[in-house]
UniProtKB/TrEMBL annotation:
It comes from Saccharopolyspora gloriosae. GO terms for biological process: heme catabolic process; heme oxidation; response to oxidative stress. It holds the Pfam family Heme_oxygenase. It comes from the Bacteria. GO terms for molecular function: heme binding; heme oxygenase (decyclizing) activity; metal ion binding. Keywords: Heme, Iron, Metal-binding, Oxidoreductase. The keyword ATP-binding does not apply. This is Heme oxygenase. Gene3D superfamilies: Heme oxygenase-like (1.20.910.10). Its EC number is 1.14.14.18. Heme b binds at residues 18, 25, 133, 181. SUPFAM superfamilies: Heme oxygenase-like.
C-alpha cells in the first residue's frame, strides 16, 4: 500500500476550471453557426468547411501531443483514443473527394488559433492541457449530439461522413471525462499556475468563438446573423 507521502495531493481544480469557464463555454455554444448545427439544419458543404477548420487545429494540437508525450505532467492527459486528425481526413475525403487537401484552407481566425497553439502547447505543459481540455473533451462530449443533428440534416444512407464524431475506441465517454478530471485534480499545479491555465482555457474558448463566428459569416445565408 502506498504511503500518504507517495499519494498525489488532490485539489478541486477540475471543478474550479469548469466553473470559472462556464460562461465562456456557453457563449461559444450560443453562436449562430453552432445553433444551426445543433438544430439539424446545417448543409453538407457548410459542415465540410467546419471539418476543414477543425483539421487545421487538430493538426497542430496533435503535433504538440507528440512533443508532450514524455512530459511528466502533460503526458498522462494524452490518449490515442482522442486523436481526431485521421478521422477528420476520412470525413473530408468523403465530402470533398480525394483532393480535399487542396480544397480546404484555414481562415484568418483558424490561423490565429494555430499560432496560439504553437506558442502555448509545445513547451508549456499547462498550456497544452488547457487547449487539449478545451478541444478534445468538447468534441468527445458533444460528438453524439452533433452526429445525431447532422444525421437529421443530411439523412445519409449510411454512417459515412461522421468519423470525426465517432469514438469507437472510447467505451465510456463519462469514464474518460472522470479520468481527465482526476488528472486535473492531481497534476500538482500551484495557485498561480492554476490561474494561468484557467486564463488559457478562456483564451481557447475565444479562439474557438472567432472560428465559429467566421463560419457563420461566410457560410449559408440561412444561418441567422448575430445582432450587432
Amino acid at each position: 500500500m502506498s504511503s500518504p507521502a507517495q499519494q498525489p495531493v488532490r485539489s478541486d481544480f477540475a471543478a474550479r476550471l469548469r466553473s470559472d469557464t462556464r460562461a465562456d463555454h456557453a457563449h461559444v455554444q450560443s453562436l449562430p453557426f453552432l445553433r444551426t448545427l445543433l438544430a439539424g439544419e446545417l448543409e453538407a458543404d457548410a459542415y465540410a468547411v467546419m471539418l476543414g477548420q477543425h483539421y487545421f487545429v487538430y493538426e497542430v494540437l496533435e503535433q504538440a501531443a507528440e512533443a508532450m508525450r514524455s512530459d511528466v505532467v502533460a503526458g498522462p492527459f494524452i490518449s490515442d483514443r482522442l486523436l481526431r486528425s485521421a478521422h477528420l481526413a476520412t470525413d473530408l475525403h468523403h465530402y470533398l473527394g480525394p483532393d480535399w487537401r487542396e480544397v480546404i484552407k484555414p481562415s484568418a481566425a483558424t490561423e490565429r488559433y494555430r499560432e496560439r497553439l504553437q506558442e502555448a502547447c509545445f513547451t508549456w505543459p499547462g498550456g497544452f492541457v488547457a487547449h487539449h481540455y478545451t478541444r478534445c473533451l468538447a468534441d468527445l462530449s458533444g460528438g453524439q449530439l452533433i452526429r445525431s443533428a447532422m444525421r437529421r440534416s443530411l439523412n445519409p444512407p449510411d454512417d459515412r461522413g461522421f468519423a470525426f464524431l465517432t469514438f469507437d475506441d472510447v467505451p465510456s465517454s463519462a469514464g474518460v471525462r472522470n479520468a481527465y478530471r482526476l488528472l486535473l485534480d492531481t497534476a500538482g499545479w500551484d495557485e498561480p499556475e492554476q490561474r494561468r491555465i484557467i486564463a488559457e482555457v478562456r483564451l481557447a474558448y475565444r479562439l474557438n468563438e472567432a472560428v465559429f463566428a467566421d463560419l457563420g459569416e461566410r457560410l449559408p445565408p440561412r444561418i441567422p446573423r448575430q445582432r450587432r
